[in-house]
């Protein structure tokens, strides 16, 4: 009966896959309850309470944004681009689950990453902290130079005085990453209920044209002393925003950038670099 309910909602092939994942899930929730939640439209990742992200398993709870495959792909590519010979100071803006900096901590050599993640959502910061512990990259008060570390912090990078000294993060940074809210109002109205009913709208809606947060990020990295020479800024963008985001970085921050395609050949990531390279 459970599989039949899923099939009616998802189609036979997808239902069979998801039913097997639910059966294998290590969860106190019964299989019947998981099926009922999925039939009601809840995303599978929230029901299973995890999502693969590269080789990591990222813990999930609503309403924190679910990591997407396209984000995983460009994060891995970014790690392959970097060849650090010294410790990199990394700042992730709108960190959500912490998936981007945590995957960088996993992929880059030990002792080379000190990452901080900023998010305005208390739920996101709590979850990112749990993921830091689960993935083995939580920052201890004493510090450990032989480990990569990640620390999430509740704050708004839209604050004109960000970063406040009490946050414990200080420019300059070697790498700034972000998968910011970039859905425009017209696109938001067309999203499926699986997204709008469960994921935090503050992690999705990027203003009338979807570009509000790119203006803020460009203004932030344009500040004198915010970036080290050779710093990299990598931001995910909506399917039709890459060229406009490039213009924003060029005009506001006076730094050139390139556009990376995702596996589906969509312009997905804008990667901006200051004049020298990370060594």
From TrEMBL:
InterPro entries cross-referenced by the UniProt entry: HemK-like, N5-glutamine_MTase, SAM-dependent_MTases_sf
CDD domains for the chain: AdoMet_MTases
UniProt-recorded Gene Ontology molecular function terms: protein methyltransferase activity
GO cellular component assignments: mitochondrion
GO biological process assignments: methylation
The entry's keywords: Methyltransferase, S-adenosyl-L-methionine, Transferase
Gene3D superfamilies cross-referenced by the UniProt entry: DNA helicase RuvA subunit, C-terminal domain, Vaccinia Virus protein VP39
Organism domain of life: Eukaryota
UniProt-listed PANTHER family: HEMK METHYLTRANSFERASE (PTHR18895), MTRF1L RELEASE FACTOR GLUTAMINE METHYLTRANSFERASE (PTHR18895:SF74)
Protein name in UniProt: Protein-(Glutamine-n5) release factor-specific
Species: Mycena venus
UniProt lineage: Eukaryota, Fungi, Dikarya, Basidiomycota, Agaricomycotina
């Amino acid at each position: 009966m459970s599989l039949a309910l899923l099939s009616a909602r998802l189609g036979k092939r997808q239902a069979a896959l998801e039913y097997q994942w639910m059966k294998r899930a290590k969860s106190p929730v019964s299989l019947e309850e998981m099926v009922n939640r999925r039939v009601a439209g809840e995303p599978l990742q929230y029901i299973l309470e995890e999502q693969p992200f590269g080789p990591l398993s990222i813990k999930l709870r609503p309403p924190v944004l679910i990591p997407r495959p396209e984000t995983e792909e460009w994060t891995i590519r970014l790690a392959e681009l970097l060849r650090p010979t010294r410790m990199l100071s990394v700042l992730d803006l709108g960190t959500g689950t912490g998936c981007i900096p945590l995957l960088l901590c996993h992929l880059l050599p030990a002792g080379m990453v000190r990452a901080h993640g900023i998010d305005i959502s208390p739920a996101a910061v709590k979850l990112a902290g749990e993921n830091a512990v689960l993935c083995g990259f939580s920052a201890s008060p004493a510090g450990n130079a032989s480990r990569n570390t990640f620390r999430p912090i509740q704050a708004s990078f839209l604050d004109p005085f960000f970063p406040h000294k009490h946050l414990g993060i200080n420019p300059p940074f070697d790498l700034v990453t972000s998968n910011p809210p970039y859905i425009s109002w017209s696109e938001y109205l067309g999203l499926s209920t699986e997204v709008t009913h469960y994921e935090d709208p503050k992690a999705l809606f990027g203003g009338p044209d979807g570009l509000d947060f790119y203006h803020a990020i460009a203004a932030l990295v344009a500040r004198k002393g915010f970036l080290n020479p050779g710093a990299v800024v990598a931001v995910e963008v909506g399917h039709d925003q890459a060229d406009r985001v490039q213009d924003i970085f060029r005009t506001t921050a006076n730094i050139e950038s390139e556009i990376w395609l995702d596996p589906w050949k969509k312009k997905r990531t804008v990667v901006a670099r200051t004049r020298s390279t990370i060594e």
